[in-house]
Design brief:
The protein is 34% helix and 20% strand. By secondary structure, the chain is an alpha/beta fold. It folds into two domains: 160 residues, Leucine Aminopeptidase, subunit E, domain 1 (3-Layer(aba) Sandwich); 309 residues, Zn peptidases (Aminopeptidase, 3-Layer(aba) Sandwich). The strands form four sheets. Strands 7, 8, 9, 10, 11, 14, 15, 16 and 18 form a nine-stranded mixed beta sheet that branches. Strand 15, helix 12 and strand 16 form a beta-alpha-beta unit. The structure holds ligand BES, manganese (II) ion and zinc ion.
């Protein structure tokens, strides 16, 4: 979808549809009022007779009105005006785009944010609008033999109130578009089936991104390289698989070499059967989403390639399958990680931490200013925060605060969970430095504690996206592209 900004008035705007806000129990919003006056009061009458609801998410599509240039008008419920904040704007745009995405309209103009929204400046209003419209019209149909009939909505204009707002809105729309492209990429990768989205596929996509963006470089390590580096933890996870493992290293260079990069590791298990500690078969298909951390790193790197901010970022993606088999790692096997620490693998289904610990040790070679990791790491995190929040764990207060803020601003929220040393007590092993599992309770914090043992001194944050990365069932089943918006917002606002 192509996004733009306009200062045209709603009644004279030449467009397939003007999207107008309706607020509960108040006068008509200025844009809605302007259209109402131009068409002789038709909108006001519709509201008066109770045919157009202002409840959030409700919409009413009207065909061409006398006195209005646009071919259609969409009245969009925005709830109470004083509660119209970033989240409400996001919901209203998504509802409008969803409805219009199912009509024949090709280009539309939204006046939903023209009157502003509480706590949202023109930049963020435009960015949120783009993200919401792009997210609501996303489809994954590359593997349907007959493409389902989709809408043709391809151009989306955002109305700004003043020319000063318009330039800020243009910047917001441009950022929104780059972020939305990163989100769509992450969603595509997550949604692709595990026989297509293999470790090699992730590597191919990462290479293609480096071809496309000047400041992006990709290097792909194979199993021999990993062997030479001593990545015994990562390699132990891929032992049962026929599909070869890959370690994907992407570098975005927007600042000079001396500027320390942000390092981001993303869990890339392209299918998690659990290995010898095999998972129950119900819903096992969802374990194709176990590479959504990796997908979010690729998505964020793509957005950076497009936005070109003056920073350095290195993305490290360990990618492999977790399969049972004659050569698979057994419960009780002891492996030596790249850091030299030995790990007793008591449960082969706790594999994410094993691939991440070696990726994090590898990332530390870049002497990063901070280290992030993103992973669909634990079912326990879903129990703790459900699907609404990413679980955030950090050894640094400032870093945690910045990530929480980035999540709030980009409507991709995280919730901080504890990572005290005490959570690591259960990892004690009689036979190795420690085990890969601890007690049952606080499992997300135990996993975080395991990872923290591979960080020395660097400010570090771990994002457990086990709940946030995909919608598990129903019509919306599929990858969300989270936490690409959080990551990119954080990177754009680095101090
Ligand atoms: N990929 C899973 C975590 C997961 C499970 C995410 C369900 C989303 C939904 C991870 O590799 C895993 O299996 N974790 C185990 C850890 C346990 C063995 C300590 C879990 O959460 O059960
Ligand atoms: Mn697992
Ligand atoms: Zn997993």
């Amino acid at each position: 979808m192509q996004f733009s900004v306009t200062t045209d008035s709603p009644a004279s705007r030449a467009t397939g549809c003007v999207i107008l806000p309706l607020f509960e129990n108040g006068p008509l919003a200025p844009a809605t009022q302007a259209v109402d006056e131009a068409c002789g009061g038709a909108l006001g009458r519709l509201v008066d007779i109770g045919d157009a609801s202002a409840k959030p998410g409700r919409t009413r599509l009207l065909p061409g009105l006398e006195g209005i240039v646009a071919e259609r008008v969409l009245l969009t419920g925005c709830g109470k005006e004083d509660a119209f904040d970033a989240k409400a704007l996001n919901g209203a745009v998504a509802a409008a785009a969803q409805v219009l995405g199912e009509t024949g309209v090709t280009d539309v103009t939204s006046y939903l944010s023209q009157g502003g929204a509480a706590g949202v400046d023109a930049y963020y209003a435009a960015r949120i609008t783009v993200a919401a419209a792009s997210g609501a019209t996303y489809r994954f149909d590359e593997l349907k033999s007959e493409a389902p009939e989709n809408g043709k909505l391809s151009r989306f204009a955002i109305a700004a109130g003043t020319s000063g707002d318009a330039s800020e809105a243009e910047r917001g729309a441009a950022h929104g578009q780059s972020i939305a492209a990163g989100v769509s990429l992450a969603r595509d990768l997550g949604n692709r089936p595990p026989n297509v989205c293999t470790p090699s596929h992730l590597a191919d996509v990462a290479r293609a991104l480096a071809e496309r963006f000047e400041r992006l470089e990709t290097e792909v390590l194979d199993e021999d390289d990993m062997q030479r580096l001593g990545m015994g933890a990562l390699l132990s996870v891929t032992h049962g698989a026929e599909e070869p493992a890959r370690l994907i290293v992407m570098q975005y260079t927007g600042a000079d070499d001396k500027s320390a990069p942000v390092a981001i590791c993303g869990k890339g298990i392209t299918f998690d059967t659990g290995g010898i500690s095999i998972k129950p078969s119900a819903k096992m298909d969802e374990m194709k989403f176990d590479m959504c951390g990796a997908a979010s790193v690729l998505g964020a790197m793509a957005a950076l390639g497009d936005l070109q901010p003056p920073i350095n970022v290195v993305g490290v993606v360990p990618a492999c399958e977790n399969m049972p088999g004659g050569r698979a790692t057994r419960p009780g096997d002891i492996v030596t990680s790249m850091s030299g620490k030995t790990v007793e693998v008591l449960n082969t289904d706790a594999e994410g931490r094993l691939i991440l610990c070696d990726a994090m040790t590898y990332a530390s070679r870049y002497e990063p200013r901070c280290l992030l990791d993103v992973a669909t790491l634990t079912g326990a995190c879903v129990v703790a925060v459900g699907h609404l929040y990413t679980g955030l764990f950090a050894n640094d207060e400032d870093l945690a605060a910045e990530l929480l803020e980035a999540g709030k601003r980009s409507l991709d929220p995280a919730w901080r969970l504890p990572a005290d040393d005490e959570y690591g007590e259960g990892l004690r092993s009689n036979f190795a430095d420690f085990a890969n599992i601890g007690g049952r309770y606080g499992g997300a914090s135990v996993a975080a504690q395991f990872l923290s043992r591979f960080v020395d001194g660097t400010p570090w944050a771990h994002l457990d996206i086990a709940g946030a990365a995909w919608h598990p069932s129903g019509k919306r089943k599929g990858a969300t592209g989270r936490p690409v918006p959080l990551l990119v917002d954080f990177l754009l606002n680095l101090k």
